[in-house]
Amino acid sequence: MAKTRDYYEILGVKRDASEDEIKKAYRKLARKFHPDLNPGDKAAEEQFKLVQEAYDVLSDAENRKLFDQYGENWRAVKAGGGAPPPPGWQGTRTTGGGPREGGFDFSDFDFGSFRTGGGGGGGFDVFDELFGRAGRSRRPSRGQDVEAELELSLEDAHRGGRHTLQIQVAEICPTCNGTGTKDGKPCPTCGGSGQVLRPRALEVNIPPGVRDGSTIRLAGQGGAGANGTPPGDLYLHIRLRPHPVFTLRGDDLEVELPIAPWEAVLGSKVEAPTIDGKVELTIPAGAQSGQRLRLRGQGMNRRKGGRGDQFVRVKVTVPKEVSPDERRLYEELRSKSRFKPRG
What we know:
The chain is of the alpha+beta class. It is 24% helix and 27% strand.
């Protein structure tokens, strides 16, 4: 049995770290190991995936609490609605495969919170509704809808594409029929939870331009219907993780770009990162630190067509160390320049 990774150790934070400390550690490490900044470095790519996985768990209050309490079994506990995992369940992770086109890998997906509403309604439990627990006797006309949260990278949200998802679905235990007991004892198959987890492969078409908070409906991919009734639907609620390079503002992207003092004074042509790769950017002469330059049409794809813009915020940086020749030139510039930055 593989040991669950220590997400706190991966991010280099203490177990009582605040949300801001976790986010700050993630941004620092994600920028350090980002594939765009380490082309061809497989070790950096694998570390980048670990950092993303750790942040996915620790940035979610509920997931973090379950991880702290149950360790390697936290995903199974969540999928079971808070019940202890059945025997033999060793914290199997729900994962998403890479897209068929575009070259991006999906992160791990957590398909917990299986609270439903009989086709979208009032939020009762799947197994309570099917078997009439707590005095319920109403029989559903179709299977139950299932809600889940799906985390995407900014690149996945921008490009979209077809993805094969390997998920674990909670089903009624065939041994005890969901009662949790067999012959007056806890069911040996499900450990008393009344549920067993079964693998299911789903192919999902993520449309380009999805945004944080949007929902994708997968018809017929929810809970199985009782007595031959149609299955329910699966609703994927989209959540975008922070990007180590870009900041998303509506449809627009923003990125900080360091430039040298002479590039700011004299102007220059430099490479700037975009969501689709690097482009040439003209730095105007006299550019100021903090000045924003617009790259029209280089932002995020929109669901109804078109794209937002990208804003490049330049940051004038100075060398921490200089050679003797450089120092001499700077001293000469100081003696001859009439520039007065403080008026």
